[in-house]
Design goal:
This protein is of the alpha+beta class. It has a single domain (about 10-95), classed as name from scop, CATH 3.40.1690. It contains 4 helices and 2 strands; from the N terminus they run ββαααα. It has helices spanning about 30-40, 50-55, 70-85, 90-95, and strands spanning about 10-15, 25-30. The longest helix has 15 residues, at about 70-85. Keywords: Bacterial flagellum protein export, Protein transport, Transport.
């Protein structure tokens, strides 16, 4: 298991505006990965650690939507992020 304070070897940032699929907005290894994680922390953006998922997402070109094969797992990560931030998309509120 990876230690929490160990620098990431790879990191990917996603953006989801509620339309279409989430897009990869940043991706990098080493120092760039550390910068991605640091910026997320500075802006209180929830982090999720999964080496397998980040390796798959790192293959997606910047500003491209994630592939359909990753919709479910990424949806679970986004739902968890909304949950811990206390925010839910408007359409999810209507379904509850």
């Amino acid at each position: 298991m990876k230690k929490r304070n160990q620098p990431p070897r790879l990191a990917v940032a996603l953006h989801y505006d509620g339309e279409g699929a989430p897009k990869v907005t940043a991706s990098g290894a080493g120092h760039v990965a550390e910068q991605i994680v640091e910026l997320a922390r500075e802006h209180d953006i929830p982090l999720h650690q999964s080496e397998e998922l980040v390796e798959l997402l790192a293959q997606v070109p910047l500003e491209h939507e994630i592939p359909e094969a990753l919709y479910r797992v990424v949806a679970e990560v986004i739902a968890f992020a909304y949950l811990i931030k206390g925010k839910f998309p408007e359409d999810a509120r209507r379904r509850r």
